[in-house]
């Protein structure tokens, strides 16, 4: 359910209307609460109570309509977004003047126009800051046409080249400081206007389709047409355009519409590219972002601009494009209207379940049927509870890439993982429905989830670049988003509850066994216990099959599964103790209680403070922050080392800010980052396949780090040269 909109923005350009609105979304969340066990037989009681509650969160919606359907767009606003308190609708873009009277008459609201360029800059800053895979370079002849860029922590300064009817070139230095430094009257309107005269084609997209099929060399005069080959003295290739439309002065034949459209596109793109390069060099800027309706995500346009920038800058400057460039004005206008709420104080995340992917509407890449309403592209952004920042211990945040394998690049891995997620889908839907046995519509919602995620997977087969770089992490996150959309906030809550209870009963005996060992034997046993605990991952099919078919499978059985060479697993803790260790925990149950906590206890005994970081929200059977509080409380009641560490704040439990089975060290809870600095953390432990293999395997930190996991996937184990249940134990010391 979505509550009444608080404010609306409408952005109008030559052919598209973009609608922005804010809503409060009501959805279900799983909560855990410790029971009062006083006077009860706790051995036969659940560890904690699980309840499903309603929570209200903020969401931004951005929708594109074709201007042909402007009346339908206004009907949508009138029926869903206008209430008795609404007096004004904000509008920006060139069409704000054109449609002003229609909007005011249809909606009965006053149109308040916002400055176009201010809105564009605000929107651009917003997406650069909040969407990790927003920026990409276009590579024509690469297997991966879209090469996504790592977001730099400092997004300023940059050059924004907005190609609308004309061209505006803006230097952006900070959130509120920007300067128009140049432009041209030769822009998208020129291409559209001259194209219409030359080809009699009135629609912009149809003109681009013609250009994509054309051969400009039939119309343009090349260097080799003038000099018989390359112009060696000036270093000019023979295939370089010497004169746009140059052959039309001498040829007696008629030129095709396609060839003329392609020549025109090259002429205008080359002019814009040279102009942008000159301004970038003049102002010493190396980041140039292109936007405006001329781009519209069309490959043929991005290809010509990329070539132009590369040629005129001699490869020193790269043309960069934005996944959501069509929404910049709408986003910026919304933010400007919401300044009293200061939306920039929050972090926002793209909701993959409700967003269309890049190129979903490109006519020459992936044709799609438009609905009769004319809506064909959507973006949803959810407000996150707390601001997200970089882990302070990253050696170079500007080059940090969370994901180990780029599935957009690796066709074999992409095919495997997409198939893997497809094959697991029925089981996930079944698990989701079973998690809510008292709900009459659980089966129906589970089927809707299954269909939605299946459709997403098919889109990613056709367009692996749809949501940025395709990775195992993005596939997992998209699945979690789809589960949440259909109100399955934590399908594994009961499983985690049961496994936490069982593991707690074994904790004291595990500790007694460890304490009976000599120092060296204990270190090996601790590490083996960490790895054995990590076997218990319901997200891995090889494990879930065992856990469902062999209920007695436990900690000792997991140890016997490990594939490793004995003492090579030792972690050298023989030196001086670390000041503070940051541990990113993985699974509930045996993993955290019998694997992680004995290791935490050993560190504490050595005088090392410990920050234990767990997910803010649920994902698979990963332990959440709220669950970790209850588990730690129960362990502290049994163990004096943990009890005193909690009391003296030597053991600190924090949330990561994530609800993913993987880990992005550039988007962590701000409170965690503050604590890492304050406690002078000098050891980071990252546990689990999702956090230490699918992500962060190559992450470089400024302190010692330990990445460990059990490989629970046969295909991945084979690729890494091992067997299933082989271990990853990667201890790294930074270079001095």
Q: Helical percent range?
A: 25-40%
> How many strand units?
24
Compute the average pLDDT. 88
Structural class: alpha/beta
Q: Count the DSSP helices.
A: 23
Main beta sheet: strand number and arrangement?
Answer: 7 strands, mixed
What does this structure look like?
- It holds the Pfam family ARMT1-like_dom.
- By secondary structure, the chain is α/β, with parallel strands linked by helices.
- The chain contains 23 helices and 24 strands.
- The strands form five sheets. Strands 5-4-1-2-3-16-15 form a seven-stranded mixed sheet, with helices on both faces. Strands 7-6-14-13-8-9-10 form a seven-stranded mixed sheet, with helices on one face. Strands 20-19-18-22-23-24 form a six-stranded mixed sheet, sandwiched between helices.
- The longest helix is centred in the middle third of the chain and has 26 residues, at 257-282.
- The relative contact order is 0.10.
Which terms would index this structure?
736 residues; disordered N terminus; globular; single chain; nitration; 24 strands; pantothenate kinase activity; 4'-phosphopantetheine phosphatase; 7-stranded mixed β-sheet; hydrolase activity; alpha/beta; cytoplasm; 39% helix
